[in-house]
Design brief:
By secondary structure, this protein is mainly beta. 9% of the residues lie in helices and 58% in strands. It is built from one helix and nine strands, in the order αβββββββββ. Strands 1-2-3-4-5-7-8-9 form an eight-stranded antiparallel beta barrel. The longest helix has 18 residues.
Amino acid sequence: MNRLLLVGLFLSSLVAGAVHAAPIGLPENTGRIGFAWGGERLTVDDPDGDTKTKGTIRPFTLVYSDWLPRGGWRYWGEFYYQRTTLEASQTEVGQDVRQIGARFSVQKSVRLAAKFAPWFGLGLDVSQARYTDRHKLDLGGFRVPALEFGDRTKVHVNALVNVIAEWKLNRRWAVGAKLEHSQPLGDGIRSTNASALVMFRF
């Protein structure tokens, strides 16, 4: 938990510094806040066996984005929470998964067509995950004490790659879509997600 808190404070300091360093020629308030909602496919690296790949809905993601001082780059930060259940089998560990974390990436817009310039980004995903009710099933498909495992709490660090397309509705509001992959640096939760975005410039 202390490790997660330190990383969160570090990312917050990066964001705070960039907020006060808007590029020359841009409006003073360039920060934007928004929400993302979408689906995700995830797989857990479990020390006691394989797990099923699960499709799930990520119900809450808070987004903040702003320009970096130079070069036409921007940063993209997310705070998220998710909960899902992986089903057990004779060879796969079932469990309840609760995860809270923050994602931070740096992005650059690349023009692919006259009116289409998506943002491509790289970053880090830092989260704390709680794994409970961990178990396998016996040959008859039943739960037995010999195939039950203890709860786990882990801090995970993942590498991120994402692409985001946005469309302005007016001066303040925009909608968009994001495709992202999160790959563990060690053990953790491997995931690919697609999300719809709503952003507001204040």
